[in-house]
Amino acid sequence: MINSKLIKKPYRVLIVDDQETNRDMLGMILKEQFEVIYASDGVEALKRIGENADTLSIVLLDIYMPNKTGFEVMEYMKEDEQLRNIPIIVLTSEKSAELKALQLGASDFITKPFDTPEVIIARIKRIIELCDGRKLISTAEHDPLTKLYSRNFFYEYAIRLYTYHPELHMDAVAIDIEQFHSLNALHGREFGDKILRLLSDEIRKFLKETEGIASRLEADRFEIYCLRQKDYKALLDRLQKGVNSSLPNVNIRMRMGVKEWSEDIEPLLMFDYAKAACNMARGSYQRPVIVFDELMQKREVYNQRLLNDMRTAIEEGQFTVFYQPKYDIQGERPRLCSAEALVRWQHPELGMIAPGDFIPLFEEKGLIGIVDSFVWRESAKQIAEWKRKYGITIPVSVNVSRADAVDTSLVDKLTELIKSNGFAFKDMKLEITESAYTDGTAQLINIVKSLRNVGFEIEMDDFGSGYSSLNMLSSMPIDVLKMDMKFIRNIEHNETDRRLVTLIIDLAKHLGVPVVAEGVETDKQLEILKAEGCDLVQGYYFSPPVPPEEFEKLIQKEIEEGKAK
Ligand code: C2E
Ligand code: CA
Ligand code: CA
């Protein structure tokens, strides 16, 4: 698309620099496309700006000059109603000047010696367009730490590029630093800030060679909107290498998600997809770069549907709770002793949805609390009902997500449930996955401790899938170890897994807590576990998770066999 405005009325550009060679060089680059005027120091600059206040499209401003510095020129312009909205690009070779220039309202930088001519021209045009007439954005906003564009400015800019320059096929790129939280915790915040600055420097270097813009949205999340690159893995490697070359003692790894340009998807959605792809690459050594594809898009649409439907589903009772029995296997006969509550979603159009499809999604979006609270309420009612009906208490374990376990009102919420349903704390046990402990905060540990103080029993779920060290384990507040299913799957055939199971059982004995093995499906697995001294077993061998009516048959059977307590 040819910008007709450019032809009819070329933009007027003021180049301010005390070095003649700089003025000439920049003038040569720009004069084909812009009407260029010059000033050789700050005083002359203000004179030209005053004369051309109505017609000047942009000022390219050197900082260190005789008479008046660039900073003084900027300060003057900032105070003046009419001059305030003329965009400024700072010409600098001094990194130290950048922050101050940004604070005074500069939109961008051109570094000396000058960048690639096409990039300079493109950048000047973009800034002019951005500030021209449409009044949406007048001054650029930057993230103070990295000096990249702020989130809002970045997105507005991207939307403008998409709207006014459909001929530019721009891709959305999202970048995260792996384990940034741990790096911060381990080496301190200053070190974390240093990494962020180094990465933004590398991104800026990259943007000197191609057309694009970048932002740090928050924490360690960076986004780039740039012309299609041939090889994004190469880009990631390059950024990573650049950062690591300045950090002799650590090796930073990053991940990247890309959504390639497509005509009908506007930038905000593109960045949602890029972010989703970036999340998928989390922790993956093999695939640190993921380009969002059609399948993922379908998944994303599906996920969006689940997110939208969730509240209605709660209201309309589409969620139900299934119960899976746990059996004590150390006696003569296996004895039904408790259950785990597992949520099910019977969707009116999509059918039965497995928890694996929505639990991680709701966790990620911070919505899991709503579902979990529902499951806790239902389970509490169920415990009370069974107690009434059969005169025995079947303790039920409920799952507590990481996000639930950092909520300071959790103890009160659960206590209230126990009190209003009239049973003991130990009758509703809480399963918390191992990884919540290991990458969790001190806050989580404190909340778990207070849960135990009021009388709840805590089961560490999926034990062995995370990375708790022995020494961590002995100081963690837990009452039961629940072994991860993956160990059980192969105990019959795999000597290593079998030894690991033995080790975990010994470990639990050492800690003085019982062990639950879940995912037990065969006679042989049961036999091995019993021989090794495992206390409790849960799995298809006894029963899959079933609706309450079905579970009652198991209770009745147990009572008939006279073995329930
Ligand atoms: P989990 O807590 O580790 O639950 C055990 C899962 O293993 C359940 O899958 C259960 O159906 C399945 N399972 C039980 N026995 C066997 C067996 O013998 N073989 C095999 N192959 N699988 C078995 P489900 O119900 O699909 O739940 C999957 C995960 O979803 C759960 O893993 C848990 O992390 C999460 N989840 C389920 N319900 C809830 C809930 O109410 N709240 C939260 N926060 N998470 C839940
Ligand atoms: Ca569980
Ligand atoms: Ca588990």
Count of DSSP-assigned helices: 22
CATH domain class of the largest domain: Alpha Beta
User: Which spans have pLDDT < 50 for at least 5 consecutive residues?
Assistant: 1-9
Structural class: alpha/beta
Corresponding CATH architecture of the largest domain: Alpha-Beta Barrel
Sheet with the most strands, sense and barrel status: 8 strands, mixed, barrel
Give the overall shape, derived from the CA principal axes. Answer: elongated
CATH superfamily placement of the largest domain: EAL domain
Helix content: 40-55%
Bound molecules: ligand C2E, calcium ion
At the third CATH level, what is the topology name of the largest domain?
TIM Barrel
Number of strands: 19
Question: Termini, distance in Å?
Answer: 80 Å
Cα radius of gyration in angstroms? 31 Å
Mean pLDDT across all amino acids: 90
Number of domain modules? 3
Note the beta-strand portion: 15-25%
Strand order within the widest beta sheet = 11-12-14-15-16-17-18-19
Concise summary:
The protein has 565 residues and is of the alpha/beta class. The termini are far apart. Residues 340, 399, 431, 461 line the site of one calcium ion.
Could you explain how this protein is built, in words?
The protein is an alpha/beta fold. The chain folds into 3 domains: 4-136, Rossmann fold (3-Layer(aba) Sandwich); 151-292, Reverse transcriptase/Diguanylate cyclase domain (Alpha-Beta Plaits); 310-564, TIM Barrel (Alpha-Beta Barrel). Helices cover 47% and strands 19% of the residues. An 8-stranded mixed beta barrel has the order 11-12-14-15-16-17-18-19, surrounded by 4 helices. Strands 2-1-3-4-5 form a 5-stranded parallel beta sheet, with helices on both faces. Helix 21 (523-532) links the parallel strand 18 (515-518) and strand 19 (536-538). Helix 3 (42-51) runs parallel beside helix 4, helix 8 packs across helix 9 (189-207) and helix 9 packs across helix 10. 36% of the residues are buried. Residues 1-9 have low confidence and may be disordered. One calcium ion (CA) binds next to loops. Ligand C2E binds next to strand 12, helix 13, helix 14 and strand 16.
